[in-house]
Amino acid sequence: MGDWVLPPDESQIFGPMLHAAQDAKSPEARYLRGGFWRNFQVKYTEINDLHKQMLRTSAKVAAMPTGAAKLAAEDHLHRGQSNDCYWHGLFGGVYITHMRLATFEHLIAAEDIADGTYRRANAGATQPALIADLDLDGATEVQLANAGARLQIDPIEGGAITSFDLRAPHHALLAVMRRRPEAYHEKLREHAKTEAAGASASTSSESGGVASIHDIVSVKEPGLAAKLRYDDYERRSALLRLYPAGTRGGSIADGAAKIIGSFASTPWTLTEHDDQSATLTTMQQIAGTTITATRTIQLAGSRMDPTLTVETTLAHASGPAFSAVLDEEWNLMLLGGGGNPAAHWTAAGVRTAHDAPGEAAAGVALSSGNDYLGIAFSTISAPEASAAWAPIETISNSEGGFERVYQGSSLHLVRAVELRPGATVTVRTEHTFRLNRDITAEEGLPS
């Protein structure tokens, strides 16, 4: 763990040094400790999010009155504290999608039971909004919750929605991994160069002996090195960016389009809130035009049909008229890897796999979901947006070798906008959920 927790460039130095000392049985190997385990929370924002959600849930469960509900919540909490997804290493970790989502599932279940106890004790009262430093990064976040869902907003991180947990199916809809450099990617690149040069991968060392396990490269499919791609931002949701007029959604979804302005990298300010909504503002200068943005994020609906609405207004504050394509990015996890037939996109009645790319013209009915999880939701935009989506896949290494791992899908809602001096443009996106599986009720606990 002391090796894996280091930043990639440091691990490329430390790893070979440690392994050489170990293979040579050098006594100094015992002093080569590498980094500190908690640095996984720094290296991977996703692990920090998971860890802080676990701490908050643990505190809620501890505060529950003694009884059957608390025992059930404690059982889920302890399962959600299983350590594997709080790190990343050769034999597992946060990149393993089904394990990461199972860890979230149990934390969501524990919190759902605790919050259900709160609602019953307060005659069904709406949970108050929580304004606090939820991820312990030194800045304030916003949490909104009702019987159907819990969402978290990070104003300084592009005014983005950083989590959206569906309570009935215990599912973390936005638990998507960012594609980032790993030290072992260099080993994959070197392996690809060797193959391209016509030399076969060998399990023998240059001296003729058997190579160290650290030098052996195994790949589960050809051409993986060419598929290495990295994100320069965290895979949050409701991220706003601007592209040149005429840019197609497909080129945005596959990362080929050039950004001309971004509200996703701009800190926003929380200006007002109530128990079910939050309003944020920011300002950005793009190509000599100053644009102010106001965004309201609202949570509504009941346990089995929650709704999430984001309405954003862009106002021309100064400078020349401005025409562009506005992209709103949502990163969704519906366990669609491997062409899972339960997970889907459905556009104009045509169903496709959730890990396949696709596009839909403006005005086409768009929905998605996972039949096994009991999740289905429709995405409605106004003015009508065209849509494009693409899978997010990491290249990970494990005891079985290098492989692609599906980490979620990126949905892009694309609209042409024109801002003349003094004008405003308002866009609205609504996700309406229909849930048909209530796990808490199945466990015999009140929801």
Task: Write structural notes for this entry.
The structure is a single chain. It is built from eight helices and 22 strands. It has 447 residues and is α+β, with helices and mostly antiparallel strands. Among the domains are: 8-130, no CATH class; 184-226, no CATH class. Strands 10-11-12-13-22-19-18-15-16 form a nine-stranded antiparallel beta sheet, with no helix packed on it. A hairpin with a 4-residue loop joins β12 and β13. The two termini are 40 Å apart. The model is unreliable at 201-211 (pLDDT under 50).
Query: What share of residues are in beta strands?
Result: 25-35%
Uncertain runs are: 201-211
What level of helicity do the residues show?
A: 10-25%
* Cα distance spanning the termini: 40 Å
Mean pLDDT: 91
Q: In DSSP terms, counting alpha (H) and pi (I) runs of 4 or more, how many helices?
A: 8
Order of helices and strands: HHHHEEHEEEEEHEHEEEEEEEEEEEEEEH
Radius of gyration, rounded? 23 Å
With strands numbered from the N-terminus, the spatial order across the biggest sheet is: 10-11-12-13-22-19-18-15-16
Give the number of DSSP strands: 22
